[in-house]
Amino acid sequence: MSGARLEFQNPIEDAISKLKFSPESNNLLIASWDSYLRLYNVESSSLILQLYSRAALLDCCFENESTSYTSGSDGFIQRYDFNAGTVDRIGGHDDIATSVLYSLDKGEVISTGLDKKIKFWDTRLGQSLVLSTDAGAPVRCITVNGNNLVVCVQASMLIYDLRSLDRPFQSYESQVEVPIRCLTSVPFSTAGYAVGSVDGQVALDFPNTACSSEMKYTFRCHPKSMKGRLHGACINAIEFTPGGSGTFVTGDNEGYVISWNAKSRRRLFELPKYSNSVASLAFNHTGELLAVASSHTYQEANEKEEPPQVFIHKF
């Protein structure tokens, strides 16, 4: 699988936190700790737009081709209008805002924070907070699959129905028994999701389905022996290809990107090891391009702090 480095006109000065491809084009959104949100055309390796925020950007998402959102270390959720080149705040949390996503079905922005809150914003009404619900503990990551909002709290999973958000309709411990680092939806099942843990485990689960016990499973990406104990690098990112093939990739803190198939439960291939941690992964809308962020993540004391880079692979 061929790959090329994305050439930066303006170097990224700090760690990359998130990559996201736009819904319909090959424009790539890059959120980073240097407080800039960048939009790149990966076909021409050219910078389309660069907008500044006063805090480290920890997550980002698209609403459409011209609008995106970020969550920041200052707690604020911000909206970016690429046509106008403007940034405005839609609201915030009382602590670090850890994640943000846009629900196309509801037409709302969903954000979470270390203040234990899950907040829902209807940006069509301006700065309108629709609902704020308490998750009971700091929230690290979320994903939406159909009408299900899956919320990760330490090693526990809370599942909300987006049509009735007063309380989670299901709450249980994940298959992994250590803190979860990343979470994503499984595209071939409206009830499925996958998580990656800090010790290298990946778990796929399909709650509330007839074949849940048959389909769910857990595995380690890169088990290693350290002082006689099993060790695995933190899984920072899991991304599925669009559609129903079941193919997905994992990226870890030791610089490995590995492709797997969820249906056959097989490892497909491994990319050459990156010199830095793999901080984020993203597929374009056709699944033909994979973006890889090679960047430190501030998780380990001995991490290499080399200049962040983004690589584009033809998948």
UniProtKB/TrEMBL annotation:
Give a Pfam family name.
WD40
Q: What are the WD repeat spans here?
A: 90-131
Q: Transmembrane residues, as ranges?
A: none
SUPFAM superfamilies linked to this entry: WD40 repeat-like
What domain of life? Eukaryota
InterPro entries for this protein: WD40/YVTN_repeat-like_dom_sf, WD40_repeat_CS, WD40_repeat_dom_sf, WD40_rpt
Checking PROSITE patterns in the record gives: WD_REPEATS_1, WD_REPEATS_2, WD_REPEATS_REGION
Question: Keywords on this record?
Answer: Repeat, WD repeat
PANTHER family per UniProt: MRNA EXPORT FACTOR AND BUB3
User: What is the protein name given in its UniProt record?
Assistant: Anaphase-promoting complex subunit 4 WD40 domain-containing protein
Which organism does this sequence originate in? Brassica campestris
